[in-house]
């Protein structure tokens, strides 16, 4: 007869069992025009995660990355890369090839969101308002003649206009055009950051950003952040304190705040995004929200909008980021990735 063993009890003074900390690699840097912003985002997120008990390493995107990831085999990778490769899905494709779980949107949806014209088309089909626009490659200007093309743009969309690269972030290459004479220079500035420009009708109103986070209970929108600048909300205004005033939460009545939140949630769902996103929009004086673009890797610097929204919602950033890491790990375990 076998006698059941008595349950063991820890000896006095023995340390209780502690689950191992998840090992996370934050990807920051890269070679895009937004490298510095990415590095600042990576440092801020790494500091917050370490404070929340997560083991974190920050790694640049360079020739050492694949060997380092292959050797370390982290539990999770968090791509905090802004601009090309970081948001166009390509680095996420590499992580999937390496069979490494990662936080954020998958490569296919990232590619859709990364292209502003495609993203605007998708959300418009989902019933969201977005400013009317045209997308023009640089080669078309050479073939048809820049003057005639620009004249047709003004006739079609009117003034004022916003000219921006069809891909990219941090307002690089973006110009508000109020006079047709300003349009040629605006096109040159946009083409400096890509071979295709998006020209859209400018919508006058208040600029807002609404971040979305996923939780075990579903998607939720964080409070809108209102952006007020002493001029264009350009790269300098975004990342150098002093030129921009932020209101977090935005100065909105309850109904308008719900409309802004609903737009961000609908855009997140329509584009098939995952874990987190930030939607940029304009609210006109009648309270109507107009979709501008969406970010699958929102900035996390000290002046970035996602952390401001999270703080306005009462979140401790380290705790929120740890919850996102845990959610991504659960999703990876459920899908076998």
UniProtKB/TrEMBL annotation:
Catalytic activity: 2 D-alanine + ATP = D-alanyl-D-alanine + ADP + phosphate + H(+)
Protein name (Swiss-Prot/TrEMBL): D-alanine--D-alanine ligase
Entry function: Cell wall formation.
EC numbers, comma separated: 6.3.2.4
Pathway connected to this protein: Cell wall biogenesis; peptidoglycan biosynthesis
Taxonomy of the source species: Bacteria, Bacillati, Actinomycetota, Actinomycetes, Micrococcales
One GO-annotated biological process of the protein: cell wall organization
Native source species: Cellulomonas aerilata
Family: Belongs to the D-alanine--D-alanine ligase family.
PROSITE patterns: ATP_GRASP
Cellular component, GO annotation: cytoplasm
Residues bound to Mg(2+) 1: 280, 293
Pfam families named among the record's database cross-references: Dala_Dala_lig_C (PF07478)
Binding site for Mg(2+) 2: 293, 295
Extent of Low complexity compositional bias: 1-16
């Amino acid at each position: 007869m076998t006698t059941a063993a008595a349950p063991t009890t820890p000896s006095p003074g023995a340390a209780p069992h502690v689950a191992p900390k998840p090992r996370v690699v934050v990807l920051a840097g890269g070679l895009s025009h937004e490298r510095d912003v990415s590095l600042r985002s990576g440092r801020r997120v790494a500091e917050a995660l370490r404070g929340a008990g997560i083991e974190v390493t920050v790694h640049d995107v360079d020739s050492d990355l694949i060997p380092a990831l292959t050797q370390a085999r982290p539990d999770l990778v968090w791509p905090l890369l802004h601009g090309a490769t970081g948001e166009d899905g390509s680095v996420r494709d590499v992580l999937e090839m390496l069979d490494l779980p990662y936080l954020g949107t998958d490569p296919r949806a990232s590619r859709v969101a990364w292209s502003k014209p495609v993203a605007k088309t998708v959300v418009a089909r989902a019933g969201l308002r977005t400013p009317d626009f045209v997308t023009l490659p640089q080669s078309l200007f050479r073939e048809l003649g820049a003057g005639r093309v620009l004249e047709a743009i003004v006739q079609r969309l009117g003034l004022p206009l916003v000219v921006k690269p069809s891909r990219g972030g941090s307002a690089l290459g973006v110009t508000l055009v109020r006079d047709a004479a300003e349009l040629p220079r605006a096109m040159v500035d946009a083409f400096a950051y890509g071979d295709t420009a998006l020209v859209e009708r400018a919508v006058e109103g208040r600029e807002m950003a609404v971040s979305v986070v996923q939780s075990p209970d579903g998607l939720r929108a964080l409070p809108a952040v209102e952006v007020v600048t002493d001029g264009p909300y350009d790269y300098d205004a975004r990342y150098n304190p002093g030129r921009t005033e932020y209101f977090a939460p935005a100065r909105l009545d309850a109904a308008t705040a719900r409309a802004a939140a609903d737009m961000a949630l609908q855009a997140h769902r329509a584009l098939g995004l995952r874990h987190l996103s930030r939607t940029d929009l304009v609210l006109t004086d009648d309270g109507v929200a107009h979709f501008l673009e969406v970010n699958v890797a929102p900035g996390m610097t000290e002046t970035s909008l996602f952390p401001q929204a999270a703080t306005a919602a009462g979140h401790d950033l380290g705790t929120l980021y740890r919850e996102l890491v845990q959610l991504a790990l659960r999703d990876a375990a459920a899908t076998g990735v």
